[in-house]
Amino acid sequence: MSITVGQIAPDFTLHNTEKNKISLSDYRGKNVLLLFFPLAFTGVCTNEMCSMRDSLAAYNSMNAEVIGISVDSLFTLGQFKKENNLNFQLLSDFNKEVSPAYGCLYDTFAFDMHGVSKRSAFVLDKEGIIRYAEVLEVAGDLPNFEAIQECLKSLN
User: Fold this and answer.
1) Catalytically annotated residue among 45, 50, 104, 151
2) 104 catalytic, yes or no?
3) From CA 71, how far away is CA 116, in angstroms rounded?
4) In the structure, what pLDDT confidence band is assigned to residue 108 with cuts at 50, 70 and 90?
């Protein structure tokens, strides 16, 4: 499935690192930045998530909630969050239901791994409408965070 700007974001419910179920619909009334990433503890993913940690105040000032999603288990994500002092939600798409709904799942990734999330970014407005969508084919690339911030600023 492919996601397009202007459509309602597919709702989902996933477990977070505290073993609680979190639904996207819980965030209605706030802007949301969904960041899908391939794998915890890999270089680019760690740098991206730590960069989000370090700039979270800027996203909070834009009334945006940051949510990271990967196919790692909630236990792996919990350790990743702890070791990197991440200060935002990490959700486990271990069953690979949400990544394909957003059009961001590799059929085959490095080392013949199947079903790994593509690095992707989606900005949702307060009504859950997608206002920015970027799905990257190359795992070493990062989303355009300048464009993401401009989009978020335009929503306030």
Assistant:
1) 45
2) no
3) 6
4) confident
